């Protein structure tokens, strides 16, 4: 049996990742492709609960390095589960991954190299679909500003780092997320189906984030 594809959907807050990833799993299942959704941070685990409290309470004081490593630990504690699911042929549609970890911490001014180091060895996604929206669209979405990091300045910095990833990473693809939900959905779905077929046809083994070849500083001009 061939493994499932590991798909990540990235983008700034309120760009539609949550609703799209939920619908994508349904649409894939309708096409008889086994699929499950995951999200990072995974707020159900104990690290996830600390993270969730930190995000909800803007007065919560936690050192930047410490919270960065908690987000990373939250990914590491899910590695075995992800491998098991992928090995059993399930395609994982994951809402955010370490790219968000690096983008949000680097947007605070932390070093990109430092931020990436604890992520090395994690599974590397087969495809990262970057939902790119205009900042005006983002600000008009309900709920924007509720959690820590949901400020225009922070989100613009994060968006620039995603742009850098999309230029330098071979597995990234930009999706124009300013159009209607259904159009965006169709675009995402087509890309995922293509990835699932590529993984199946090539019998691809797991990929790991071994080291970062593109040593360019993503934080430049941020
Ligand atoms: N976030 C997310 C990080 O700062 N580091 C990470 O590693 C991850 C995965 O958490 N503003 C930030 C991005 C979001 C916030 O995510 C909560 P979500 O997808 O809104 O639950
Ligand atoms: Mg959010």
Notes on the protein architecture:
Pfam families: Thymidylate_kin. Pathway: Pyrimidine metabolism; dTTP biosynthesis. One of its GO terms (molecular function) is ATP binding. The chain has 222 residues and is α/β, with parallel strands linked by helices. The chain has a single domain (6-202), classed as P-loop containing nucleotide triphosphate hydrolases (Rossmann fold, 3-Layer(aba) Sandwich), CATH 3.40.50.300. The protein is 48% helix and 12% strand. The chain has nine helices and five strands, in the order E-H-E-H-H-H-E-H-H-E-H-H-E-H. It has helices spanning 17-30, 46-56, 64-76, 79-87, 98-107, 112-116, 135-140, 152-168, 181-202, and strands at residues 6-10, 35-39, 91-95, 127-132, 172-176. A five-stranded parallel beta sheet has the order 2-3-1-4-5, sandwiched between helices. The radius of gyration is 17 Å and the shape is globular. The termini are far apart. The model is unreliable at 215-222 (pLDDT under 50). The chain binds 3'-deoxy-3'-aminothymidine monophosphate and magnesium ion (MG). Magnesium ion (MG) is lined by residues 13, 147.
């Amino acid at each position: 049996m061939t493994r499932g594809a590991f798909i990540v959907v990235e983008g700034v807050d309120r760009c539609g990742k949550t609703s799209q990833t939920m619908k994508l799993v349904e649409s894939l299942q309708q096409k008889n492709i086994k699929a499950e959704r995951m999200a990072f941070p995974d707020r159900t685990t104990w690290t996830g609960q600390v993270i969730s409290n930190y995000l909800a309470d803007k007065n919560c004081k936690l050192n930047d390095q410490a919270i960065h490593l908690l987000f990373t630990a939250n990914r590491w504690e899910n590695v075995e589960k992800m491998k098991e699911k992928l090995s059993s042929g399930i395609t994982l549609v994951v809402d955010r991954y370490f790219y968000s970890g690096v983008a949000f911490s680097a947007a605070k001014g932390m070093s990109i190299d430092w931020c990436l180091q604890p992520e090395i060895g994690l599974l590397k996604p087969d495809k990262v679909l970057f939902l790119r929206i205009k900042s005006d669209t983002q600000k008009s979405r309900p709920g924007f500003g509720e959690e820590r990091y949901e400020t225009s300045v922070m989100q613009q910095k994060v968006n620039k780092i995603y742009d850098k990833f999309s230029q330098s990473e071979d597995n990234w693809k930009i999706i124009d997320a300013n159009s209607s939900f259904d159009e965006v959905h169709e675009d995402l779905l087509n890309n995922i189906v293509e990835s699932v077929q590529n993984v199946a046809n090539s019998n691809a083994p797991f990929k790991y984030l071994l080291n970062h070849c593109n040593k360019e500083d993503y934080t430049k001009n941020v």
